[in-house]
Hints:
Chain A is of the alpha+beta class. Chain A contains seven helices and five strands, in the order αααααβββαββα.
Amino acid sequence: MRANSPTADLIFTNRQTSVYSATDEKSAGLNSLNSQIDRREDNQSTSTAQTDFKTAGLTANDKKSITFEIPQARRHNPQSIATFSPMQEWEGYVTEVKDETFTAHLVDITAKRRIAEEKIEISISDLSDQDKDLLREGALFRWSIGYYKQHGTKMKSSRIVFRRLPAWTKSDFMKAEQKAKELIGAITWE
Amino acid sequence: MGIALSKPALDQLEVTLIGPGYGECCIVHVGSNRWLIIDSCRDSSGQPAALEYLQNIGVDAQEAVRWIIATHWHDDHVAGLAEVLRACKQARFFCSSALSKNEFIAIVTRFNEKASFDCSSGVSELIAVLEELGSSDRPHPSFAGPDRNLETIDASELAHAEECQIWTLSPSDAQLHKFLREIAGLVPALGETSRRFPSQPTNYLAVVTFVRIGSLGMLFGADLEETADPATGWSPIVASPGRPKLKSSVFKVPHHGSENGHSELVWEQMLHAKPVALTTPYNRGRKPLPCEEDARRIASLSGSFYLTSVLSKSPKRRASAVEKMIAQVGRLQPISNIPGIVRLRNGGMDNPNAWVAELSSEARQMDIPA
């Protein structure tokens, strides 16, 4: 893997996109990828994409599984690529799920905030079926407002996409157990 | 109105409450430059509010802070706590015994393994606190609990010439048991998609603190809520034969003044008539606390009632195209992160019962209804 090449950046971006579930159409992931590629080529979003890669909790191993996706992205005619230009993005976490709505706290990543400064109640019916499966307290999502451009058409877009985070593994549990033992063992309570 | 950046006199008592709309921290001067910190929150610059405040008034926290109490493990009460501990190496630390329980620490470390979001859920803070408590250069931590006298300082050691006692009045064993049973349901399973550590819906563990200086009492209610179960909440505290019977004239109202935190018996049996009441708001929940009804109730029961911050209802302004799109999804509500301060100082040994309040620009005295 060419770690310092533009292709490597695209690989990162691609993988970052793939941790989000598809939204309302099969091609959403690919569109999103294309949009990221477009932004990358505009030389506007490289640093953002890399920051997102880190905050998505990915590891170096994640790069391996997605290298094959790059040629697919390259096959597209650039004119048919849908590009997405975000005007406002939040990272959100679900604080409560009710019958028809859920409540979330939002971190304004456009304004480069690190703590939640806003909250909102959102209708569950606004979510895709795949995202509904991921909806639970503590679930994380990205809410992006911006414009899609494709075939010369510009459309407003508001997308809420839940993050499909890695599952807990045996190794995680073993590490956690070891850490717990160390913490407990180090403290002497009076 | 503002807060003077000066130390209290050595014989002067002080209760300072800091609350930004999410989080709270209480700082108490018991005399002779000895300070107690209850809980921790961060100020708008991200610093632990207690350390920033003490530094601003010229107090060396490392030397002067003698006790730190963590009332419970909700992230609005522990933000920056590890830094506070590291800065106050001499301070004795008290918390509920839940922190020593294997099952609790095991859950926390599991969530910490998958921490994938910058926004604090309190998990990483808790790990940092445990690491600091395990360091060899600080006093061993102790448990808070019902009717527990943490410290008694002889009157001869203090400039106001009154004995000082610091007590905790909770949590009871029943509360601890309920807490552990509740968090057992949060244990992540193998193969389960990771998520942010969920907040515990109840405040079973909240440590209530009572400070007695001579004949003057101060009650700090943390987030303790009243429950229908007589073995949990405020009921066992009020009924306990072992608690100090002195009534308090200063009351940190529990749980941001919510109806759930209210107990008539506390006002009748643990407080003087018309005490000075103070609390912090909370604007991350379903509805902001205290609500108007809560504020009316507390104001009518107290002689004066202070709130550290009045919450803004105006959302942040954005480009109109963005605001239109937001409106299609829902209504954004602001969560304030600017800390407000309410500071009470008494008249020292000459006039110990005369409390004078100073408020930062975010804080308000709530009107007492006619």
